[in-house]
Amino acid sequence: MELTAQCASRLLSCTPKLLNNPLETSRRLVSSATATLRNQKRSGPGPPRLKIVNARRESGGGAEVDTAVAVKEKPKSERFEVYRGSPTPFGATARDGGVNFAIFSANAVSATLCLISFSDLHDNKVAEQISLDPLTNKTGDVWHVFLKGDFKDMLYGYKFDGKFSPDKGLFYDSSRILLDPYAKAVISRGEFGALGADGNCWPQMACMVPSFDDEFDWEGDLPLKYPQRDLIIYEMHVRGFTRHESSRTEFPGTYLGVVEKLHHLKELGVNCIELMPCHEFNELEYFSYNSLLGDYKVNFWGYSTVNYFSPMTKYSSSGVRNCGCDAINEFKLLIREAHKQGIEVIMDVVFNHTAEGNENGPLLSFRGVDNSVYYMLAPKGEFYNYSGCGNTFNCNNPVVRQFIVDCLRYWVTEMHVDGFRFDLASIMTRGSSLWDAVNVYGNSIEGDWITTGSPLSSPPLIDMISNDPILHGVKLIAEAWDTGGLYQVGTFPHWGIWSEWNGKYRDTVRQFIKGTGGFSGAFAECLCGSPNLYREGGRKPWNSINFVCAHDGFTLADLVTYNNKHNSANGEDNNDGENHNNSWNCGQEGELASTSVKKLRKRQMRNFFLCLMVSQGVPMIYMGDEYGHTKGGNNNTYCHDNYINYFQWDKKEGSSSDFFRFCCLMTKFRRECESLHLNDFPTAERLQWHGHTPGMPDWSKTSRFVAFTLIDSVKGEIYIAFNTSHLPVMITLPERPGFRWEPLVDTSKPTPYDFLSIDLPGRDIAYDQYAHFLDANLYPMHSYSSIILILSPEESS
């Protein structure tokens, strides 16, 4: 017979309390379940009711007593066969003719698996709710269940119940359906920028149920495994790359759109794409009307992750069709086709915070599953905000760091990506909430005074990733700072394999190229791969990711067009974005300028790009810089889904193509020169510094000239010089008896004579114009210009 908790309690009241007796076990079992059911009345849905079975009279120590064995009802379902399931692996896994569901939650008192028909999702209807038995469907802190049945067009989510006590870091709400952190696809709105029902920016989301039919033909794809020193990286936004109408792609703004334009990257000489965030995020997070542009602000960049295992479905031409499986396959197709073109793909990942924000943010997944585990919290439940976005992912918590490693492994093994760039990676080196050295290291550390958020010299997460048998062989790039003031460029814990976005390279190169005094020595360090930052720690030049421009900040064209940011279109009264850009407008602010100013700007763009290509380390190009894309001086375009952020193919193919030619030739030159991507820092045997005269470099604070020769096994010897003074200079070249210096690049010359390629018509005539200087071992350098000369035998000239 079925009894309520009260009836079960009465039955126990007439049962003797005998120690070391099976009756005591029955009493404790029923008492525990009774307390759970009482809590259910206060907190909402809980486990199923008790049944008392096999009630009978038994002899115990010569006396007859009443006995009762209490068991739980097996979770029931009208559509599915329900079994206990396995606590591993986490997530939903198709196996043994069904699907196993497993999810971690240490602080929840009950868990319910919600199954949702794809057609009912927008109506917020749940097809089936299966309450999990904490006795049979829970192992440790993992809730699990195994189902057999028809999962066609079926999605899932979870409800968790427990305390709602923000001051203790608990946010349980049994009315909310939450995403599984391990879900492989997230389904909601299918079209980028389209509102949900009734204008809802956060409609209900649900997770894809995997199927045995979810297969993809990789056609034998294998990792390219380029040595990192040989990479030329291209930072790209998937939607922005082909969304502009001039792309003329069949599927603009999608993974397939990128595939259609891979030939452009091949022509540019790029062999690695760095994709800006492609994990599932909600682009309507900042949705609001922008009166200045007459459109709507959105989260365009995507640095606000909802789910880390799911590719952004709205970057797929198929959207949420086939419950997200088609979107997964489109991402895989992009990777496969890029590999066919000889291009690696690395992902920009955001493990420093999530889209759930602070205590006032939405309850989507991590917060409702186990907030105090997934987020870095203060003693009274407040959110630490080292990310500047409301919360901080609790990266060095044992559960969270395992989650991150599992996620990275998935993208490498299942999606075939070649590496990762970690946004605000310094957060991953901070101590987790309730830091405990015994828990982390197995024993206490003498003098261990570490508190939540303290920088760690050996962060457990970085240690795990670095020594993981799958991950230690992929590209690992850290943005080695965060918004909490931790700046680790040159000091990021690296285990010999981590590279860094070299922000110091960017700042120094900008200062020197625009003619600021006192930077010649620092600029020379940048050209050598920043040994001042990386040599002492045992790292190499390729541990430096060199860049002049990236997604946040000025584009290359804006860097030479604006002294000040112009961010009014963001709707924040120009208060957002970086104020210190180290830019120079070349004499006039904005695009409307004199002919002489425009010529100088083009020269400066060539100077920056040449510097990037002749520096030791790994160069990174920002999307659109190869044709001179402008954002109108806006250095923080996170919210614009429009022409500001779109690659404009008509501009690339039009009048700006002269700079594109220069870029293509410079990347080709870099690839051909073995000496420009060395495995170690150059020494005096290979590199010599010069000033206006050979062997006499000027490192004074007034110097604006740096030159060097480099021995190259392919080209022989190369002479490279930068004159960033406002005055021209006549330089004396190093004497090489029996050889002659021949001009290859001079950024002061008009296109196409800025780069004297072999196939250039009139190349010999251009040579003749230099002849009388070169005969005297001299070369005239224009102000704000750079040159490359190649040493050739006398008889060949």
TrEMBL record:
Catalytic activity: Hydrolysis of (1->6)-alpha-D-glucosidic branch linkages in glycogen, amylopectin and their beta-limit dextrins
One GO MF term: isoamylase activity
A GO-annotated cellular component: chloroplast
Subcellular location: Plastid, Chloroplast
Domain Glycosyl hydrolase family 13 catalytic intervals: 235-661
EC numbers, comma separated: 3.2.1.68
Keywords: Chloroplast, Hydrolase, Plastid, Transit peptide
Biological processes per GO annotation: carbohydrate metabolic process
InterPro entries: GH (IPR017853), GH13_cat_dom (IPR006047), GlgX_Isoamylase_N_E_set (IPR044505), Glyco_hydro_13_N (IPR004193), Glyco_hydro_b (IPR013780), Ig-like_fold (IPR013783), Ig_E-set (IPR014756), ISOA1-3-like_C (IPR048650)
Alphabetical list of CDD domains matching this protein: AmyAc_Glg_debranch, E_set_GDE_Isoamylase_N
Keyword NAD belongs to the record: no
Family as reported in the entry's similarity comment: Belongs to the glycosyl hydrolase 13 family.
Name of the featured protein: isoamylase
Provenance organism: Lithocarpus litseifolius
